[in-house]
Design a protein that fits this description.
Oligomer: single chain
Number of strands: 6
Shape: globular
Order of helices and strands: HEEEEHEEHH
Structural class: alpha+beta
Strand order of the largest sheet: 1-2-3-4-6-5
CATH topology: Aspartate Aminotransferase, domain 1
Number of helices: 4
Largest sheet: 6 strands, antiparallel
Length: 117
């Protein structure tokens, strides 16, 4: 799996923006100004995704390729090794879940502003 496939997947979601707020190799995808996906595009060995705390723990216990979020709040973020025992369909579901969690946390005002474009 290559980074470009993940990038295209994220950018197909409504209201997603991409940027490099930390350095030239760490890309983030945001919705409503809030981060839901973070990865190093030079090495692209893992991605950071938001998760419900109980689900994050369950995923870590089930797959060796899912770890507590590197440089993130370990309660709410997982680092997922791209080339590991994590099935691709689960990885894409985790991206969906991360996006949905962040979008759901946005205020009504921000959601309204997003729909206005």
């Amino acid at each position: 799996m290559y980074f470009e496939e993940f990038r295209e997947y994220c950018l197909r979601k409504p209201f997603v923006t991409e940027g490099f707020p930390f350095d030239q190799s760490t890309i983030v995808f945001k919705v409503g100004g809030k981060l839901f996906f973070l990865a190093d595009i030079d090495q692209f060995t893992s991605i950071n995704l938001k998760a419900l705390p109980e689900k994050a723990i369950e995923q870590r216990e089930r797959y060796s390729g899912i770890l507590p979020g590197y440089h993130m709040n370990k309660k709410h973020w997982n680092t997922v090794q791209v080339h590991s025992d994590v099935p691709m369909d689960l990885l894409f579901q985790m991206i969906d879940d991360s996006y949905d969690l962040v979008y759901a946390s946005l205020s009504k005002k921000i959601k309204h502003e997003l729909t206005l474009g």
